[in-house]
Amino acid sequence: MKLLILNGPNINLLGLREPAVYGNGTYADLLDSLALWAAELDVEITCYQSNHEGDLVDRIQKAYGQVDGIVFNPAAYTHTSIALLDALKAVAIPTVEVHISDVSAREDFRQISYVRAACLTTIAGKGFEGYREAMEYLKEHIG
Ligand code: DQA
Known about the structure:
The protein is α/β, with parallel strands linked by helices and 143 residues long.
């Protein structure tokens, strides 16, 4: 099984950005954990992060026919991007929305998720562990 682990803007600054909200782990730490969990779950992963909405759209389009599932933290674009929603709908790849923080307990503007309508489920507020849960969820629910 092949999974794309897709991260949006400012996720590359984990560790530096708001540690009280996102923790002290860096993006490199996240990549290390993802590699470990992929080996444990026997799934093949490709990781991609971009600060640019169009790059994320391109990466979702490129995933068509290439991966079985997507673990997606669209970061701030969660709350703004119809383009990402449309891209997910277009390729129809099973996708799990992940947020490191508990967005439901944060500002009003974080209560909207455009991508959620194209996702199987949402995992939020579980730190890096949420990515592992998303990988497990996809493994259980695909094929
Ligand atoms: C986030 C939550 C978003 O609201 C925020 O814009 C992010 C990260 C999270 O992982 O908790 O950049 O997606």
